[in-house]
Design a protein that fits this description.
Layout (H helix, E strand, L loop, with lengths): L6 H13 L1 H9 L10 E6 L4 E6 L2 E2 L1 H5 L4 H4 L3 E6 L8 E4 H17 L7 E5 L4 H12 L3 E4 L6 H11 L3 E5 L2 E3 L2 E3 L1 H9 L7 E5 L13 E3 H7 L9 E2 L3 E7 L7 E6 H16 L6 E4 L6 H13 L3 E5 L10 H9 L3 E4 L1 H8 L4 H4 L8 E5 L5 H11 L5 E5 L33 E4 L11 E7 L9 E2 L3 H9 L6 E9 L5 E6 L3 E4 L2 E4 H8 L5 E11 L3 E10 L6 H15 L8 E4 L13 H9 L15 H11 L2 E2 L2
Helix pairs in contact: 1-2, 5-6, 5-9, 7-8, 10-11, 13-15
The structure holds 5'-O-[(S)-ethoxy(hydroxy)phosphoryl]adenosine (WTA).
The site of 5'-O-[(S)-ethoxy(hydroxy)phosphoryl]adenosine has 23 residues, from helix 11, strand 20, strand 24 and strand 25.
Length: 636
């Protein structure tokens, strides 16, 4: 393990990793438990993408998360669960208890016939059993595919079908603020389309009435109770699949990003320890749901690999009041908080008197992730939450990179508000222009690419390697293209400018414009639609939909409501458009391509600099759209 303790060490590690990447990553990987050492640290090729780390080695990530800690930390708290309601008791699990429960559920899965390499879909709320589910899969070598429990039945079935999952792990219901969500009902609906699923293991968490399919559905608690807690870990090759996580891109349906066992494991722990400067015994709280990559790497694997105490929070930041986060920090003496700018901005809108009421003396490090953090939010977070004494790290990374790529190391590399800063050691970045020419020097902007693999990098996209090549490795020769634009300032610090492709980032969640358009087009009177992002005060970006309907819409409010319902049903409430504007036509080139650049400008409220529109088939639609935009109705 390489732990960087000061700026000189950062510089030394950076140069070492740049000059001898294999020696560097070999050194980082040394302290894990390997059942067999590797033959080769790295085998790679970005042309026909192949990224194989620690080839020949064997391990099991749960041995590194759990078993190896037992001699020193059997009785240390591994997980603190803070339930949705502050009136309910928090629950703690020690490393020994977590090990035992993971083993039992692992055995229950084996009893159901789940074998190494089988895909298991996990659709659950943020309760301890969600972490247990994921680790139990990893224990027996099953590939977990966690689906965020806010996605609709239709999104869930798409993901189950794509991964050809055999088993689904779920709960009867979920609590979110003052709402109860019937999770099992969503699973039942999704499974109508998924014949590959042989069993559903359901955790009866709320005791709500549920439909039960005899023979298919199994009671989690009973199965766990009956199972032995001796669950030998499956021997995993370093390059064996650990998990699939679906994420949105520019085109088509979300794709299953595949992460391998060893590379992901090494990168999770390395980045966790170094970016947060984690100190033995600290309580770490990542507010992300396990349905996203941040929840995989920094709620679950990173902290458990490092032997930390990780907080799992079921609720939302604003319920029952906008001081819930600060209460949780006080209640569990949280030392490190990792959250998203949207949460900060939303809490900011209630005023700083809420965080001011809480001294939060335990806090040492604050982190931000998932979307650009604006300067105002950065300062508010720093001053009112961190009381101007905590390190604040803004970390940039992606589902595909598995762990943080550009980030300050807390208290070590200098912080600049709204800048992710310097790359992690081992991360070789470059900026290119639209032709793929490298842009050298500082004080420049361009498309952000990566020229050398890091251990957390994706292996493939599930079931479609060509799609992986095309999406990430074909835009620029021999480079991985992130999809983001970035600025490198006079000191070489990076500021992420946002996506340059057709992905929008709503509250830190990735959304493909095509995906939302396809859902909108399912509405019976919609002929065509075009979706773009626009600046949104709280969510970072909002979803703006331009919609053409078959006939003129008489009751626009009703039509908007119906469209929103269709989107919620097909994708989930997170994809609901914030604005819907009915238009008679869309700005299209003669070859039929929608000029989104124009729509983006209009959605941003900047119709003065649309550029050349004479190449459009019908330039007059633009004028109509601009006029309509002035009165476009917010759907919220
Ligand atoms: C964006 C989340 C600015 C970026 C970990 C990236 C950010 C996408 C930051 C990946 C940040 C993530 N500053 N933008 N600190 N972190 N992004 O896959 O556009 O859900 O490409 O991974 O989020 O989102 P994903």
């Amino acid at each position: 393990m390489i732990k960087i303790n000061n700026f000189q060490e950062y510089e030394a590690a950076f140069s070492f990793a740049q000059e001898q990447p294999e020696a560097f990553w070999g050194e980082v990987a040394k302290d894990f438990v390997w059942l067999k050492p590797w033959d080769q640290v790295l085998n790679w090729d970005f042309e026909n993408p192949t990224i194989e780390w620690y080839k020949g080695a064997q391990t099991n990530i749960t041995v590194n998360c759990l078993d190896r800690h037992l001699p020193q930390r059997a009785h240390q708290t591994a997980v603190i669960w803070e339930p949705n309601s502050p009136n309910d008791e928090a629950v703690s699990l020690t490393y020994a208890e977590l090990h035992s429960r993971v083993s039992k559920v692992g055995n229950a899965l084996r009893k159901m016939g789940v074998q190494k390499g089988d895909r298991v879909c996990v659709y659950m709320p943020m309760i301890p059993e969600l972490l247990i589910a994921v680790l139990a899969c990893a224990r027996i070598g099953a590939v977990h595919s966690v689906v965020f429990a806010g996605f609709s039945a239709s999104s869930l079935s798409d993901r189950i079908i794509d991964a050809d999952a055999k088993v689904v792990l779920t709960s009867d219901g979920a609590m979110r603020g003052n709402k109860t969500i019937a999770i099992k009902e969503i699973v039942d609906e999704a499974l109508l389309k998924c014949p590959s699923v042989t069993n559903v293991l359901c955790f009866k968490y709320l005791g709500m009435p549920i439909h039960w399919v005899e023979g298919r559905d199994l009671d989690w608690s009973l199965e766990e109770l009956m199972a032995s807690d001796n669950c030998p870990p499956e021997v995993m090759e370093a390059t064996d699949m650990l998990f699939i996580l679906y994420t949105s891109g520019s085109t088509g349906k979300p794709k299953g990003v595949v992460h391998s066992t060893a590379g992901y494991m090494v990168y999770s722990e390395f980045t966790f320890r170094n970016m947060f400067q984690y100190q033995e015994g600290e309580v770490f709280w990542c507010t992300a749901d396990l349905g996203w990559i941040t929840g995989h790497t920094y709620l679950t694997y990173g902290p458990l690999l490092a032997g930390a105490t990780t907080v799992v929070f079921e609720g939302i930041p604003t319920w029952p009041g906008p001081d819930r986060f600060w209460q949780v920090i006080e209640r569990h003496s949280v030392n490190i908080l990792y959250t998203a700018p949207t949460a900060i901005r939303s809490l900011m809108s209630f005023g700083h008197e809420y965080p001011e009421r809480y001294p939060m003396e335990s806090l040492r490090v604050l982190g931000s992730v998932g979307e650009p953090i604006n300067e105002e939010a950065w300062h508010w977070y720093h001053e009112h939450v961190g009381k101007s004494r905590c390190a604040l790290i803004d970390s940039w990374w992606q589902t595909e990179t598995g762990g943080a790529m550009i980030t300050p190391l807390a208290g070590i590399t200098p912080e600049k508000p709204s800048y992710a800063g310097l790359p992690m050691p081992g991360v070789q970045l470059l900026l290119v222009d639209s032709e793929g020419n490298e842009i050298h020097g500082n004080n420049v902007e361009g498309n952000l690419c990566i020229k050398f693999p890091t251990p957390g990098m994706l292996q493939t996209t599930y079931g479609d390697h060509e799609r992986c090549r095309q999406t990430y490795f074909s835009t620029y020769k021999n480079l991985y293209f992130t999809g983001d634009g970035a600025r490198r300032d006079e000191d070489g610090y990076y500021r992420i400018l946002g996506r340059v492709d057709d992905v929008i980032n709503v509250s830190g969640h990735r959304m493909g414009t095509a995906e939302v358009e396809n859902a909108i087009n399912e509405h019976h009177t919609v002929i065509e639609s075009a979706v773009v992002g626009y600046p949104h005060e709280v969510k970072g970006q909002g979803i703006y939909a331009f919609v053409i309907t078959e006939h003129a819409v008489h009751d626009q409010d009703q039509a908007r409501k119906e469209i929103i319902d269709v989107v919620s049903k097909l994708i989930g409430p997170i994809a609901r458009p914030d604005k819907i504007q009915f238009v008679r036509g869309l700005p299209k080139t003669r070859s039929g391509k929608i000029m989104r650049r124009i729509l983006r400008k209009i959605a941003e409220g900047d119709a003065t600099s649309l550029g050349d529109i004479t190449t459009l088939t019908d330039p007059t639609v633009v004028k109509d759209i601009i006029q309509g935009a002035l009165v476009a109705v917010n759907t919220a």
